[in-house]
Amino acid sequence: MRFVSAQPAPLQAEPPAPAARSRWPHALAAPLVSPSPTAMRGIALIGVVASAAIIWTGGAVRLSQSGLGCTTWPKCTSASLVASGATGDPLIHRWVEFGNRLITGAIFVIAIAVFVAAWRYRDGDRRRRDLVWLASAQPAGIVAQAVIGGIVVLTKLAPFWVSLHFIATLPVLAAAVALYVRCAESAGPARPLAQPLARLTALALLAVTAVMMVIGTLVTGTGPLAGAADTPRYRFLSLTQVTQLHADVGWVLGTLAVMTVLTLHLTGAPARAFRFGWVALGLIGLQGALGYAQYFAHLPAGLVWVHVANSALIWIAVLMLNFALRDRGKAGVPPDGAPVREGATAGSDGAASLPGGAASLPGGAASLPDGAALPGTPLPGTAEVR
Questions:
Q1: Residues 6 or more apart from 288 whose CB is under 8 A from it?
Q2: Are 135 and 47 within 8 A, CB to CB?
Q3: For the domain bounded by 191-329, which CATH number is listed?
Q4: 176: exposed, middle or buried (C-beta count within 10 Å: 0-12, 13-18, 19+)?
Q5: 228, 63 Cβ separation under 8 angstroms
Q6: 124-162 burial by CB neighbour count: b if 16+ within 10 A, else e?
Q7: Which residues pair with 80 in a beta bridge?
Q8: What confidence tier does 380 reach under pLDDT thresholds 50, 70, 90?
Q9: Which range among 96-100, 168-172, 215-219, 284-288 shows the weakest confidence by mean pLDDT?
């Protein structure tokens, strides 16, 4: 006699539905094709990091003397697109330069993604053209960088083109920072948050920072880190003279940074701007210490690279300081500060009209289509009883 188990047979798990398996590509693409304000700001931040990375990787190529690791452009060698074969240069130089090209390609993909997100982003039901223009600067700037980089290789590291290769990153990085700030703001006009003196010193700090970075390229293009012994160099000033010029401008920059922080404090500037002022001052002080350390250590390449990398952080901090001294209001909020609900449109006087044809009266009293006042809203010419 056989006994039959009363336990039911285990249920087999059903295979996932096709829709569930294909859901993850849509989840990955959602931040690009329909970005939320938070997603747009995150994507813009990635664009800032990628734009700064151009300076960091380019500095590594320059300071490791790998600029001619790939002997031609757009190929790495006349016979290969990748770093292979013999070129007369050490293999490590070839891979540093080719690796920089690969990283630039990845940064270009990020720049395209930033542009697509800005194009698809909607503030209410409107496309933000200001964001689209700022985002377009990133892929356009990288294409320009690639062309200039090709000229650098074909001219065997001519110092003018090498300097321009670095300087061209500054407006691209500035556009990336501006996009990061503006995607959290409305499209309205900017209003100042600080007194004119504070804004003037911050703008002066930005201008001198740019001059400082340009002169830094002259120092590198004159000194031993410009490349091998037969690499062309600047000849209009000696290394001692151009280094002294760089140091003089550095002291002007440091003094101006101190003046900016004091001005922000004395004029009652916003706390956010004051914090960015301190960040900029700290980074500039660090830059000065690095500059003197590398000079007395006879320009070790690693320390010089830290000096170059820190210059990108200074540029970002000074830009953020200037943006913190004005305000456009939050994204999705009209100038009067009242968020516009979905389905409402802005009236000519800045007030939002209600759905269904109800319009706001000039005195702020809203009327319904039949003329009856909304509850709690006084009619024009009547006194509200409290």
A1: 250, 251, 254
A2: yes
A3: 1.20.120
A4: buried
A5: no
A6: eeeebebbeebbbbbbebbebbeebbeebbeeebbbebb
A7: 77
A8: very low
A9: 96-100
Confidence of residue 346 (pLDDT cuts 50, 70, 90): very low
- Distance in angstroms (rounded) separating the CA atoms of residues 354 and 281: 49
Burial 189-202 (b: 16+ CB within 10 A, else e): eeeebbeeebbebb
Contact assessment for residue 145 and residue 168, using Cβ atoms and an 8 Å cutoff:
yes
Q: What are 28-31's contacts with CB under 8 Å, separation 24+?
A: 31/117
**Do 308 and 302 meet the contact criterion of CB atoms below 8 Å apart?**
no
pLDDT tens column, 300-322: 989 999 999 999 999 999 999 99
pLDDT for position 126: 86
CB 143, CB 109: distance < 8 Å: no
Q: Which fold has domain 31-187?
A: A middle domain of Talin 1 (1.20.1420)
Residue 251's CB is within 10 A of a number of other CB atoms, namely 10
Taking the domains of the chain in order of start, what are their residue ranges?
A: 31-187, 191-329
Nearest to 135 by CA among 43, 55, 253: 43
Q: How far is CA 85 from CA 90, 95, 176, in A?
A: 11, 12, 38
Q: Do the beta carbons of residue 163 and residue 217 sit within 8 Å?
A: yes
Q: How many CA atoms lie within 13 A of 19 on its CB side?
A: 0
Cα 128 from Cα 327, distance rounded (Å): 17
3-state helix, strand and coil shares in percent for the chain, rounded to the nearest 5: 60, 5, 35
Tokens found for residue 197: 């003196």
**Residues 203-216: what's their mean pLDDT?**
96
The amino acid at residue 178 is A
Burial of 230 (0-12, 13-18, 19+ CB in 10 A): exposed
Mean predicted confidence (pLDDT) in 353-368: 41
For 137-295, strand residue ranges (E) read 191-192
For 137-176, how does the pLDDT look when each residue is reduced to its tens digit (9 = 90+)? 999 999 999 999 999 999 989 999 999 999 999 999 999 9
Instruction: Give the tokens for residue 13.
Output: 């798990």
How many Cβ atoms sit within 10 Å of the Cβ of residue 283? Answer: 20
The residue with greater pLDDT, 349 or 246, is: 246
Q: Please tell me the distance from the alpha carbon of residue 250 to that of residue 216, in angstroms, as a whole number.
A: 10
pTM (2 decimals)? 0.78
